[in-house]
Amino acid sequence: MEENKRRNNSLDITQVTIIVFLSVIVGSAIFLFAKQQIPLAFLILIIPFVLIVIIWVLYNPKNGIVLIFIANYFAMGIARYLPGPLGLSVDGLLVLTWLSVIFRQFNHKVKWIKAKNLLTLVALIWYGYALFQLINPQVVSRAAWFYAMRGVSLYMLLMIPLVFVAFNKKEDLDKMLKWWAWFTLAGVAKGLMQQVIGPDPWENHWLATVGGKTHLLPGGLRIFSFFTDAATYGGSMGFSGVTFGILFLHTKGRKRYFWLITSLAAFIGMLISGTRGAIAVPFAGMGLYSILSKKFKIVIGGFIFIFAIYGFLKFTTIGNSVYEIRRFRTGLDPNNPSLQVRFDNQQKLKHYLADKPFGGGLGSAGNWGLRFSPGTFLAETPTDSWYVQIWAEQGIIGLTLHLFILFFILAYSSYYIMFISKNEDYKGKAMALLSGMFGIMAASYGSGALGQMPNGIIIYMSMSFIFLMKEWEKESI
């Protein structure tokens, strides 16, 4: 009886505390609204939601990974509507989720041994090279290093071991695929709205101030959905199209039709993006899948299909009245003026970097270069490619290391799929993820797709799950 009284008293105190806290928040917000301090008022109102998120993530690190995946997909699009560095939300959630893992150690045994593997090692080596860039004598701005290294190496280092220790079940992979599919469909829906209805006022403002030069072309608008730009949108949709298309081929039951719908919708999204480089994603992805399958009919059929599409775009004019097809066709023209400009820029970079084996420093090229070191050679010379940017910022040594790591992961995963895996479900999912990843790797020669949100986080999670599949098979024996 006394115990119940104590419990009720404790509950009453908690309820009163919550009511008082919320009353102070609402009262402060009303006061600030009355004083026309609207941004500050909204900031005050957000505080309870932020606290709820912190508590929810600290309760279970899996909740943090859910929010990381959501923020990774939508944060940059929301930034068009709400001012502020929303891209840093992924960083904050990664740190918070790692704190949750550490605190969880006190009540649950965290299996740190799961993160002790080759994938974590190469992520650590790559981040170590990024740290070395801080003492690169060519560095112009070390502030730029902080911003640039996040997408280049920090997310990889934080995300890969996080999956191994906190999101390492077969059900977790299924959840990720489901979220990814629904988010892909949302991206396609938003893209079709832009094409049919037109951009909304906030998107029009972005086009008028930032994106118009590259997105408002004589043939029409390059669709960008809620992504940072059309190039990222097109590459991401190609990634989804390849992955879910292969999942359709290796899934039984009604779910396979959901994968098929997602794949077809994603390819529509890729087409309306007007991103010529995105066509490399299905070409490379399906080409790798044909090899991984080790089935003669699929290999022959796959390459016939790829060459048929290539021939259609390269040697015919069928469909030229459709702007999207016409634009993709120009991507296969070696005399395309845009391609020639890229080659010219690469020649300039080749001469500039000849005596700089470690590059100009992380953040010295691209958007970060323009922001932190405007007027410098690397900042003013467009890279137009993930690999060219790695080369410009981290030199030939950095580019060689980066390519070695990527192809090591590709080779290791391919060997598992082709010669070790006996589980058809795991093999199908691994082929889907790896083929999509390889497509993005190929497309990144002409864009920054590999390091852009949402591709980067999805790729690091995919790498982790492929490595985990080998362990799952051992456990099931």
TrEMBL record:
GO cellular component, one term: membrane
Recorded superkingdom: Bacteria
InterPro entries membership: O-antigen_ligase-rel_domated (IPR007016), WaaL-like (IPR051533)
Membrane topology recorded in Swiss-Prot or TrEMBL: Multi-pass membrane protein
Pfam family, one: Wzy_C
Annotated signal sequence range: none
GO molecular function, one term: ligase activity
Residue intervals passing through the bilayer: 12-34, 40-58, 65-82, 88-106, 118-135, 147-167, 179-197, 257-284, 296-313, 396-418
Keyword Transport: no
O-antigen ligase-related domain location: 262-402
Keywords recorded for this protein, A-Z: Ligase, Membrane, Transmembrane, Transmembrane helix
Keyword check for Amino-acid biosynthesis: no
Localization (cell): Membrane
Principal subcellular localisation of the protein: membrane
UniProt xrefs under PANTHER family: LIPOPOLYSACCHARIDE BIOSYNTHESIS PROTEIN PA4999-RELATED (PTHR37422:SF13), TEICHURONIC ACID BIOSYNTHESIS PROTEIN TUAE (PTHR37422)
Protein name: O-antigen ligase family protein
Organism: Plebeiibacterium sediminum
